[in-house]
Protein 1
Amino acid sequence: MNLQLNKPLVVLDLEATGVNPAKDRIVQIAMLKILPDGKQIEYNKLVNPEMDIPEYVSHIHGITNEMVKDKPTFKDIANEVINFLKDCDIAGYNSVKYDIPMLAEELMRAGVDFDFSKVKFVDVQTIYHKKEPRTLSAAYKFYCDKDLEGAHNAMNDVRATYEVLLSQLDKYNDLKNNVNFLSDFTTRRKFADFAGFIVYDDNGEEVFNFGKYKGQKVVDVFNKDSGYYGWIKKADFPAYTKKVVEKIWNKMKLQNKFNEIK
């Protein structure tokens, strides 16, 4: 089965020094772009994280400090990455919780402002967990009847992820063959900031998902406790979360000025 696309879809996988987007760094980025006509384009780079890769992490993905010491930093390749992703939707395996937040943080650190708001995200893991809860290797065996060789090599993982997605579309008749449906199907909850600190309510308004104001609208909180905004900006939150909060704050201030004029 061929995936029905209205615009290119990039299957993304990252390997990093750890799993904390605010502190860890990418050591490998692999992307497979599928064009609407079925043509495929690969992008695969090792990255110098400018920090040590813990030994236990190297045991997982096989990438050592020696392997990346002479490789470009993420800032060196940031423009290549956004050009590859431009005008594309994004798919991955556990990408909404891991790869997208990690990528967003690296782009922010590199000084690149990439607009994710118009991107549709398809998380193959979510489809799998809703249908057959297991790991990528098990998913590859279950759907494709193949053993995943070289798991945790990013390029091997993106190819396996794409094959699993195609097999899922073949297997489940209730899955529609388009990215809009798959994005909605794989979205557990609408996050405004990827890390899940800010979520959307049923009316599409931003709501805090943590702390003493959990469940309250961000705008309402800022109007009654402006110091909370300053605390978030200074605290150890991901850069992308701070960007979202700043956008809400600026929009609120403009609305308040408009109301004063009226």
Note: The CA atoms of residues 206 and 254 lie 17 Å apart.
Protein 2
Amino acid sequence: MSLVISAKDVMALRQRTGMGMMECKAALNEASGDVEQAVEILRKAAKGKMDERTDRAAAEGALALARSADGRSAVLIELNTETDFVARNEAFIAAAEKVARHALAAPDGEIAIDDTIGQTIDEIRITTKENASFARGVKVSASASGQIGSYVHHNRKVGALVVVEGARLDDESLSGLAQHVVAAVPAPQAIDESGLPADKVAAKRDEFTEEAKASGKPAEIAEKMSAGKLRKWVDENTLLGQPYVKDMTGKTTVRQVLKGATVTKFVRYQVGVR
């Protein structure tokens, strides 16, 4: 007795996978009507096709954020695809959020691609017919007394995590710190001067010293001028020294917002920017 595959079953499989009607019908026939097996058949077939597209740039994408129930761990990930149209699709965003939640079980640090993440990427390729990739991801944790501030902008193109230890901050301040990392111009390069590359600081010191000498000022004054310029440059490029973006007066620094708390780590992601 030949197997009868209903149009309803074919349509349901097509909606689930995004594959063509004939491909779905063939997969159901091959799987003797078993839907899950048919999905696996289509996944394998489509993955082969999509692997041929890996040279197509996946320059668009979206960020996703996940936090543990106790709020002491958080994950920020970036998934890439070819077009912004797909990146803004609800299914793509849901896939990114699924990956972020899954990564909460990983150890702290950079997230490695595992079978679950790989399968999710394959499903994106199947349903969108675009190249897709796991760009990067990170998990951070705070101590029992620490806190994590997190923020992803509404366009899902830029986001940040900030780990704070010591004095307790309210939720608005924690979120505000992450928003600052996202919005500050220039984007902070380190928490404070100790985190800046020594060679870059030395180069700036030499640059400002030469500028001061060229001004013709007495040596003592030139030295103070170069030191002042260096302090200003350090403040402009480090988190603690920057004017807090949510204070429109520009008079409050991030250091003051912390009220004695200590930032031990921050991460800033922007889609397509490393």
Note: The mean pLDDT is 91.
